[in-house]
Design brief:
Number of helices: 8
Length: 208
């Protein structure tokens, strides 16, 4: 499991909400408002959508920046990389702060102050596309099994647990497991023979 997936799976459901649900939800809201603003641009009925989009952009940029700062201070120092998929997933997630902070600064009129509305809209679109690309890269590589990229767990623990049957205790000795499987096979072999004997006995009584 990559650190990306591990982070989301720990401390359920809070980590999932803080690191995935809120950022993704605000990003999707922002994308929807962008489309609706453009769709209603000619009719002049896009003021409400534009206001919601501006609010979502500011909140998302500030929130994700704070989230990345916390991650870098509290979580990043303890990371031991699990192959290049792990590295790509984590860094793609963190890089998302660049476009999102840019969107917030743009909405607060702290950058591109003297640019035209068309130039600001163009930059806004580019930053939003950048956000979606790195977010999906993080998700894709975050779901990759690190072992297929060359990562090997210490003492082979990951490979051992992944290859075991779901109902088999992880600490069962291998010779006990072999004996258990052998006994199960013998039981299956004996059951048909016993049924055949019972059927023959029944048929003999019926003929008598």
């Amino acid at each position: 499991m990559t650190h990306y997936m591990e982070l989301l799976s720990l401390n359920q459901p809070y980590n999932l909400i803080l690191y995935m649900v809120i950022p993704v939800g605000l990003t999707e809201l922002l994308v929807a408002m962008e489309f609706l603003t453009m769709y209603h641009m000619d009719s002049g009925k896009n003021a409400g959508f534009k206001a919601v989009g501006k609010f979502a952009g500011i909140v998302l940029g500030v929130y994700f920046t704070a989230l990345v700062i916390y991650f870098m201070a509290k979580i990043y120092p303890s990371i031991k990389w699990r192959g290049y998929a792990d590295v790509i997933a984590v860094y793609s997630y963190l890089i998302g702060v660049i476009p999102l902070l840019g969107i917030a600064l743009l909405e607060l009129n702290l950058i591109y102050k003297n640019a035209s509305e068309k130039a600001k809209l163009k930059l806004h679109f580019y930053l939003l596309i950048f956000t979606l690309v790195v977010a999906h890269v993080a998700m894709i590589f975050g779901m990759v099994d690190p072992t297929i990229t060359g990562y090997k767990a210490e003492n082979g623990e990951m490979g051992m647990h992944m290859n075991m049957p779901m109902n088999m205790p992880a600490d069962m000795p291998m010779h006990d497991h072999h004996k258990m499987m052998q006994n199960m096979g013998e039981m299956h072999m004996n059951m048909p023979m016993q049924n055949m004997s019972d059927d023959n006995s029944t048929n003999m009584h019926m003929h008598h």
